[in-house]
Write a structure and sequence with these properties.
It contains ten helices and 20 strands. The protein is of the alpha/beta class. It folds into two domains: about 100 residues, Golgi alpha-mannosidase II (Immunoglobulin-like, Sandwich), CATH 2.60.40; about 325 residues, Glycosidases (TIM Barrel, Alpha-Beta Barrel). The strands form four sheets. The chain has a nine-stranded mixed β-sheet with strand order 2-1-20-17-16-15-3-18-19, covered by helices on one side. A six-stranded parallel β-sheet has the order 5-6-7-8-9-10. A three-stranded mixed β-sheet has the order 12-13-14. It is globular. The relative contact order is 0.18.
Length: about 450
């Protein structure tokens, strides 16, 4: 008999609860309505991990608003692979994003100032809250990979003269590449290696009320090919470069970049706010061997009822992984009771954090995003290889992996409106049969014999 660990979410009152497999009701094969066949002989991408972002807002809430005991408990529950859910992929904004208390870069200057030597470059802002949390996370889980994405270049490098709106001036392409190098070197000096960067967060969106920078594909390919990659080579940096970092609905953008800069680009980063995850596979088919990463998806009040919101993360997460992504990264690690803090002038925020830190009461609450991430991260570990999995009933979604220790992990979601009796088979051998309520999730870890 294989040793099987099972976790189940069956509605708002039962979230990621470990189930005793021995106490499951005995179900006959006649009652099976969905069979999941896992083929360990067919493998796909290697997983890097699951996570979210220590935005300025999230880091402030966790590092300054929570007390030491709460923070220790939270960090363990987030990152410890045994005592927590073992998150292992973090995306760091390079400077301010929409979720920051102020608008800042690492090289802010008075109006009309320039600093081509980057003599004023400093990551002091991040040394207050962000870097201590990243260091603590890495101690809890040394397998964590860090990536970084800028929302904007410093204002003096842009056509707008501000971190809001505008484009990168061509005469500043080289100094901006140097800015990336300085960031990577500064974080490395704190024991924080940067696995990958993207050239620009959401390059096709030019927000009016928070940091952003329009970067057309023709601009991005030149910046990466002629400035960023050569600068990494000159400084001996092995940090990977991912292009795009925006929604599934514009696969033409990464295809344009890769057509001219395939040698300099290591992969493509995607968000979920438009289009469908199949875009990931479409671009990979055109450029095999390039890494696929899912780098941002936020839940929020636009999907208000609990069931719909939880279902969205589970359903979409499974499809993201089935479409070759090596990572599944949500957005803010923490937000407060007002879904903030946000940059001044942002307006009403509707995003949801992985946890909520109430600034008035200092209460810490784990949101549905925490439990949804748990369904993936607890059983699918870094360097796991995705296995082929097929369902006889399309309403039961599945994804499966083989972990480095030989165990097989499967994440299942019943997307239908009726209870299903599910049989999981590995290489044709029935491993387990159990019932799944409508809109419920199950994660299994089946140890090797």
């Amino acid at each position: 008999m294989r040793d099987i660990t099972m976790y189940q979410s069956n509605g708002e009152n039962e979230l990621f609860v470990e189930q005793s497999v021995a106490q499951l009701p005995q179900l006959s094969g006649d009652t099976v309505t969905a069979t999941i066949e896992i083929d360990a002989g067919q493998t796909y991408q290697e997983i890097d991990g699951f996570g979210a972002s220590f935005t300025d807002s999230a880091a402030y809430l966790i590092h300054q608003v929570l007390d030491g005991e709460q923070r220790t408990e939270l960090m363990s529950k987030l990152f410890d692979p045994q005592d927590g859910i073992g998150l292992s992929f973090l995306r760091n904004p390079m400077g301010a994003s929409d979720y920051a208390r102020t608008v800042y870069s690492y090289n802010d200057l008075p109006e009309n100032g320039t600093d081509p030597e980057l003599s004023g470059f400093s990551i002091a802002h991040d040394e207050a809250d962000i870097i201590p949390l990243l260091q603590q996370a890495l101690k809890l889980n040394p397998e964590i990979k860090l990536m970084a994405s800028p929302w904007s270049a410093p204002g003096w490098m842009k056509t707008s003269g501000s971190m809001l709106t505008g484009q990168l001036k061509p005469e500043h392409y080289q100094v901006y590449a140097d800015y990336f190098v300085r960031y990577i070197q500064a974080f490395a000096a704190h024991g924080l290696p940067t696995y990958a960067v993207t050239a620009q967060n959401e390059p096709l969106y030019e927000p009016q009320h928070y940091p952003g920078m329009l970067m057309l594909p023709e601009e991005q390919l030149v910046f990466i090919r002629d400035y960023l990659k050569p600068s990494f080579i000159n400084h001996g940096l092995d940090t990977r470069i991912l292009c795009y970092d925006h929604n599934w609905d514009r696969p033409d953008y990464p295809l344009t970049v890769l057509e001219e800069a395939a040698a300099e680009v290591d992969g493509v980063a995607w968000h979920w706010y438009g289009g469908a995850p199949a875009a990931q596979s479409e671009v990979l088919a055109a450029y095999p061997g390039k890494e696929v990463h899912f780098t941002e998806g936020s839940g929020g009040e636009w999907i208000p009822p609990f069931e719909q919101a939880f279902s969205n993360v589970m359903r979409t997460g499974i499809e993201i992984l089935r479409n070759h992504s090596k990572s599944f990264v949500l957005w803010n690690m923490a937000l407060d009771e007002q879904n903030g803090p946000t940059v001044p002038g942002f307006g009403k925020s509707t995003c949801r954090g992985v946890v909520t830190v109430n600034q008035q009461t200092r209460e810490l609450t784990y949101t549905l995003d925490y439990y949804a991430l748990a369904h993936f991260s607890k059983v699918i570990r870094p360097k796991a290889l995705r296995l082929d999995s097929a369902a006889s009933n399309e309403l039961v979604r599945s994804v499966a992996f083989r972990n480095p220790d030989g165990s097989v992990a499967a994440v299942l979601f019943n997307d239908g409106e009726a209870e299903e009796t599910v049989a999981v088979k590995l290489q044709g051998e029935e491993v387990l049969t159990f019932s799944m309520a409508p809109k419920s999730a199950v994660s299994l870890k089946v140890d090797s014999k």
